[in-house]
Fold:
Amino acid sequence: MFSSENKKTDIMKTFSTNKNGYIAKIHINGVIQEANRTYSQKWLVSTIKKLKEDKNNKAIALYIDSPGGALYETDEVYLLLQDYKTAGKKIYAYQNKMAASGAYYISCAADKIYANRNALIGSIGVICGASMDFTDFMNNLGIKSKTFHSGKNKTMMNYNEPLTDEQITIMQSICDNAYEQFTGIVAAGRNLSMEQTTKLSDGRIYTAKQGLENGLVDAVDSWENMIRNMKDTEFEGKDLSVTEFNYERETSLSDFIMGKFGLSQTAAMLENYSSECRITFPALLYK
Structure:
């Protein structure tokens, strides 16, 4: 009855008898990482690949509600969407409540970006982890800790060693490289100059209206109007059907028990919080 495995969907089957084909509405929910309660990288990657090969599928409409996530998973999805377009298919992105950082990065693969008028978008920047130096605290308590290692920078960011100037430079260079990649994608995807993009990319969140004024979105409108405009612009007004693709994690025994006691929402909040606060090295997060 209970399983932690994903539901298996035969994406290659024909979803509609509509001769014009269908638009795939792909939901991207929650923190972008390998897997959590609302997101699965394996599922998303598999879905995009299969849709590219499905002759009945004519386009993807991303439906995004995410604060961002990890660099690797974010970029993998972006590159797969770019590959999807090589089949001559279109991508539109709809930013619902939030499309921040890595979620906005993914949106830049779209031919057009729409946003709900209450959406928060942008947050173009990179977090490369955090360093906590407990050496003074430990000395005051008489605690001594030694990590044996070879290579002077092997244990940088360890709690029992202060960061050196060289290590600060190393970490900042990693962060800067990821930031350059991010801003380059935004500039290319939104047809902005690097000067314009850099000015917008200080990590701040924008409202939908501010995003429109700064060229980060193409329109502030409803999901329904985006689909209508997509059909008119890309498919000469043909009546394509819209098929939902939404990751569904099957209920496990622990989910069932927590749901009985009203703890499922709290667990999801804690899971997302822990994802956003990871400090593993290197913790490159588009958040």
Observations:
- The longest strand covers residues 90-100.
- The CA atoms of residues 17 and 241 lie 9 Å apart.
- The two ends are 36 Å apart (CA to CA).
